[in-house]
């Protein structure tokens, strides 16, 4: 069930994540040039509404269609998205997430039906006209059927969210958001659910608190600070470096293993997250665009004029509460040294690499290794960092010719011989590329598996 939820969440966020640059561009224009911005400019500010209502939904629909059926799917996804855009008075992010993949699936099924039945020389004619005709039909269906339905659903969601906002109950969202993050659903929650609601709120108010619910680096900072004081072994020694990567680099995945070592710490991040949201709501704080990655630098960059005090106050309170709850839990539960146990796994991995295998891990291929892929949920944050670390270790060992790349766990390249990923993503990685060897880690910074992999390659 967890794997299915992760896959679905990854599919939703996968339509938004590649387009984050466009969201940031829109957010910057909003923060700078709207009437309440830093440099109000009516001519430039006129870009805000068209970008939100047309550009961003079209990009989402094109990306969703591309995921399902390549460029051809992306084109028909964008065509169909015009139906929901024109048929609604609100930004159609949810509509684009629906019609983009669905229309791509329709054209994919059509192409399968006619495969091998088109006379030679007529392929281009059939391909172009089939896409155009089916695209036109689906656009009308989206205009008359999908857009009104999604608009009604938007109003229902808006009413539900409005109830929590009006009754000051929004901090309760942390009970769902923080555990979901630890299960590597952070990108799905942020970009698949909160961002569409946030962008609609920006259209109305110029800022949105929804962009801060998941991206707040405060709760994770509190956990890592607690490990700096009450941690043990490599968990304690690696925490300071993790703070820099988490708080400044915005890679929240770096602190997930520290919580997985002691699940009681979920109470700390939930408390910290709820406290931060309470302060944000109390002070009327919001961002103009998604803060991605969730770095304090990105959060401040998306903070509108006059909102810096409230933003910093919410982050600080979240970190303080998370720290104060986590510290006694670490001191009295005695479950904060599990990271050291990973060293004991090195011998086991070494035996497995020589042929003493279990179902958990395959042996390194005896053929020359040419490509290693570091995979994480979105393929951008922790995997990019891990790939850099591994690449340096390989180069130092004389394996600089081995290609090391990072990738989303749902689309690992088929030519990858070795895949390095977090153990929580094992099933998804195995499903994405069944032929590759899996090297499973628990901590992105202090993973002995990196050195063990290098030693295994030396042995080959």
**What is the number of strand segments?**
4
Average pLDDT metric: 83
**Terminal Cα span:** 38 Å
Query: Helix count, per DSSP?
Result: 18
Strand content range:
under 5%
- Please give the radius of gyration in angstroms: 24 Å
**How does the major sheet shape up?**
4 strands, parallel
Structural class: mainly alpha
**Low-confidence parts:** 336-363
Estimated helix fraction: 55-70%
The shape, in one word, is globular
Protein architecture, described:
The protein has 460 residues and is mainly alpha-helical. The protein is 66% helix and 5% strand. It contains 18 helices and four strands. The protein has helices at residues 2-14, 20-33, 42-45, 48-86, 93-114, 123-166, 174-205, 210-213, 218-230, 233-248, 256-260, 266-282, 296-301, 308-333, 338-353, 382-396, 426-432, 448-459; strands at residues 371-376, 403-408, 418-422, 437-441. Strands 2-1-3-4 form a four-stranded parallel sheet, with helices on both faces. The chain is globular, with a radius of gyration of 24 Å. Mean pLDDT is 83; it is low at 336-363.
